[in-house]
Every structure is written in structure tokens, then in C-alpha cells.
């Protein structure tokens, strides 16, 4: 159909910065990876994530009163002026119901978590440790809190993303982003291609593309799991094609939509490469995905190793050498630089006024941070001892859970793109 052609036409062939074609990634992901990663992330080891949702936002004051679970009874700061209409306030309250966290856990689970924690050790944290060690940190069941549309939008959501992009000025100044609700729709901001940004070294361009890929992925989940209607007292979630086009159609985004989608594939390949590199770490017999049940743990590990085997068989790998080229010292400095960026992004996520969005934002940030930590630790991974813990390279349970769930979200996004393609071709 014409609509489908205009939206997806530029999204074919070779991906910039790497020799991979998008069609091959689609087939590989949708048939080989997606079904397996879905299964894996439902396992007990991967479905519980520890997170502190009570940290105050360190950068600006106004959202904190919205981040408590029961904030739905309080109008949001954005809606609190007297001039606001009743429907504004209702929309805000509704957003908070949708964004609340379901924190149901059995006592059995709580005891198990203490046992798991004793089983863990690590160093070299790419994300804020306070998220795990604070008394306010709680285990959340990810299956009870799926990532989907929550109604969280407007200036405060835009400000969070803006801060992430601007993190230490890693962003070229003149990129058009239509996400700013404070700018008129007809505002003609200049468009500039990241891959040709003068004065932006490769690593910084990479950082921008990774964040853009993450942003794209999250937006696809929100479009795919949109609140359709609440008739008959039942909430129905499903794909919203209009919302998808609004975010990704070149005609509606001044050509930016295609670049966003390409950045999603770029991020997918980076995380895929990290999984390829970290496979030897998990293949050692000393590494068990411990939940206390030997049989369950063996099944979970087997599932994980199946995913690694599929990844090894995939021929189109991204060469990260091109991404972080440089001397030995430079790689070390770069690793530290990226680590600090991810710590900061983790802190920016504390400013997200919707708890469910904050949960998935933190998890996916930590997953990407862990992927980069792996790519920077190639030598240490090569020298791992088979039967004893390694001082050189170690992953915590948190990092493992974040890494696989974050990759699972990217895999889901690419699968959802296929679904949107089908829906758009049906619309003609």
C-alpha cells in the first residue's frame, strides 16, 4: 500500500555504520530470537528486578509529588492551575492509575530473594548501585508490570528525554525532534544527519544513536500496547497505527522517522554483539542462574545458551572496533566516560513522574550500560577461569536480568514493526 511504502520504503537494505541488511535482521529476530527470549524472560530468574522507585529527582523539583504510587488522587503539577478543565485533571488521574506499579509478591518470593542476594558478587557498576542496595529498593515482578501506554506525556516527559540526549552535550545541536510539546507543530527546526555531524567524534555519535534507538524502542512499545478503549468495564490494549505514524512516518516527522527506526536496528546490533561477546562467561560450568531449584535453573541456563547459539550462527555482526577505535588507554578512558554517562541517565530516570515508565526506563538503561561494559571488557572475558569466580569480569544478577530483558524489549520492538507493516498494508 502507498502508506506502507512511504513509511517503510527508506527502511531497507544496508544499515549505516555496519554491513547488515535490515531484512536479514528481521527474519533472524522474528523467527530465531523473539520466541526464545520471550520464554527466557518469563523464567523466575529473569522476571524479578530490584529497583528503587522512591529516589527524588536530583535535577528539578516538580515531578516528585507525582512519583508516589497513589498520586492518582492528586492532580499533577502541570494540571494544578485553577484554569484547568475537569477533563485535564481526569486525564492526569487516569495516567497515574495506568502508571502505578503492581508490587504483589508472595512471602515465598521474598525469602527466595534474600537467598539469591547472598549468591551474588560483582564490581564495576555501570548504573547507580543505590537502586539495589537502598532500603527503599523493592523487587518488582516484570510480568505483572508490562511496558505499555500509561498516558505519561507533556512537558515533563519531554524534559526527561531532552536531558538524556543532552547528557554531557553528546547531542548535535540541530537535530529536529518533534517531541517538544512547547514548540508549535509548524516550527521549522533544522534537520541534520547524525552520521554526518561535523565536530562529533564517532563515540559521541554512537552514544546519540544508542539513546535514539532506546527512545524509538520505547515509543514502539507504547504504540503497540496502546489503551484502545475501556468498554464493558474491561481495559483493552492494542496497536495504534495513527500514533505509530505520528512518531515514525517521514511525512509527519520531517524525515526523522526513518532515522529513528534505523537507530533501533543499530542498538539491536550493539546489544546482540555484546551477547555474542559475553557468551563464554555464561558457558562456564561455574555460572548458574540461581533461584534455588537445580532443575529449574538448568532449564533456564539451557534456554539462555540456546539464544547464544542462535546469535553465534548469525553472520551479520556489528564490528564494535569501528565504534571504539583507539589506543589501549583510550578504551579505558572511554569505558569510564560511558559508565558515568549511564550513571547520570539512571539518575535522570528518577525524574520520570510515572512509576511504570521509570521502572522500564531504569531497566533498559541498565541493560544497555551492561552491554557496553561487556564490549569494553573483551580481554577480561577471554581470560576467564572455567571453574572459579573472576576478579577481572563479573556480572551481578541485576545486570544479567537487565541485559536480557532490555534485549528482549528490542527484540519485541522489531517484531512489532513487522506487525505495524502488516497493519499499514491492510489499511490501503
UniProtKB/TrEMBL annotation:
GO terms for biological process: protein folding in endoplasmic reticulum. It is found in: Endoplasmic reticulum membrane. It is a peripheral membrane protein. The active site is at residues 354, 357. InterPro entries: Ero1, ERO1-like_sf. Its cofactor is FAD. One of its GO terms (cellular component) is endoplasmic reticulum membrane. Keywords: Disulfide bond, Electron transport, Endoplasmic reticulum, FAD, Flavoprotein, Glycoprotein, Membrane, Oxidoreductase, Redox-active center, Signal, Transport. Disulfide bonds join 66-71, 354-357. Its main location: endoplasmic reticulum. FAD binds at residues 148, 150, 161, 212, 215, 247. One of its GO terms (molecular function) is FAD binding. Belongs to the EROs family. This is Endoplasmic reticulum oxidoreductase 1 beta. It comes from Scleropages formosus (Asian bonytongue).
Amino acid at each position: 500500500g502507498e502508506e506502507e511504502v512511504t513509511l517503510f520504503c527508506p527502511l531497507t537494505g544496508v544499515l549505516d555504520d555496519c554491513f547488515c541488511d535490515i531484512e536479514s535482521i528481521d527474519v533472524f529476530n522474528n523467527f530465531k530470537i523473539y520466541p526464545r527470549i520471550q520464554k527466557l524472560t518469563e523464567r523466575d530468574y529473569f522476571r524479578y528486578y530490584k529497583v528503587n522507585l522512591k529516589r527524588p529527582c536530583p535535577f528539578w523539583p516538580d515531578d516528585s509529588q507525582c512519583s508516589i504510587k497513589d498520586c492518582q488522587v492528586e492532580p499533577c503539577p502541570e494540571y494544578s492551575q485553577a484554569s484547568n478543565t475537569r477533563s485535564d485533571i481526569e486525564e492526569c488521574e487516569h495516567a497515574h492509575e495506568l502508571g502505578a506499579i503492581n508490587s504483589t509478591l508472595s512471602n515465598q518470593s521474598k525469602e527466595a530473594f534474600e537467598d539469591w542476594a547472598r549468591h551474588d558478587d560483582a564490581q564495576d557498576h555501570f548504573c547507580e548501585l543505590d537502586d539495589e542496595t537502598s532500603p527503599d529498593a523493592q523487587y518488582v515482578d516484570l510480568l505483572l508490570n508490562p511496558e505499555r501506554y500509561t498516558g505519561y506525556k507533556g512537558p515533563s516527559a519531554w524534559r526527561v528525554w531532552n536531558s538524556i540526549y543532552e547528557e554531557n552535550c553528546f547531542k548535535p545541536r540541530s537535530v529536529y525532534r518533534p517531541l517538544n510539546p512547547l514548540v508549535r507543530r509548524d516550527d521549522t527546526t533544522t534537520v541534520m544527519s547524525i552520521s554526518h555531524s561535523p565536530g562529533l567524534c564517532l563515540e559521541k555519535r554512537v552514544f546519540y544513536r544508542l539513546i535514539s534507538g532506546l527512545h524509538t524502542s520505547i515509543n514502539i512499545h507504547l504504540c503497540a500496547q496502546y489503551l484502545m478503549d475501556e468498554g464493558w468495564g474491561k481495559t483493552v490494549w492494542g496497536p495504534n497505527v495513527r500514533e505509530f505514524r505520528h512518531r515514525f512516518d517521514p511525512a509527519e516527522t520531517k524525515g526523522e522517522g526513518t532515522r529513528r527506526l534505523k537507530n533501533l536496528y543499530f542498538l539491536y546490533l550493539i546489544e546482540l554483539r555484546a551477547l555474542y561477546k559475553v557468551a563464554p562467561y555464561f558457558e562456564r560450568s561455574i555460572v548458574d542462574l540461581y533461584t534455588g531449584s537445580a532443575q529449574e535453573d538448568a532449564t533456564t541456563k539451557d534456554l539462555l545458551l540456546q539464544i547464544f547459539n542462535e546469535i553465534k550462527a548469525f553472520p551479520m555482526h556489528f564490528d564494535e572496533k569501528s565504534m571504539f577505535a583507539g589506543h589501549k588507554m583510550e578504551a579505558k578512558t572511554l569505558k569510564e566516560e560511558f559508565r558515568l554517562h549511564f550513571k547520570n541517565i539512571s539518575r535522570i530516570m528518577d525524574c520520570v513522574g510515572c512509576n511504570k515508565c521509570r521502572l522500564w526506563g531504569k531497566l533498559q538503561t541498565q541493560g544497555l550500560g551492561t552491554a557496553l561494559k561487556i564490549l569494553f571488557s573483551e580481554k577480561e572475558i577471554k581470560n576467564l577461569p572455567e571453574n572459579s569466580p573472576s576478579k577481572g569480569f563479573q556480572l551481578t544478577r541485576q545486570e544479567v536480568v537487565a541485559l536480557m530483558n532490555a534485549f528482549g524489549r528490542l527484540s519485541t520492538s522489531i517484531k512489532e514493526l513487522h506487525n505495524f507493516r502488516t497493519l499499514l498494508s491492510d489499511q490501503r
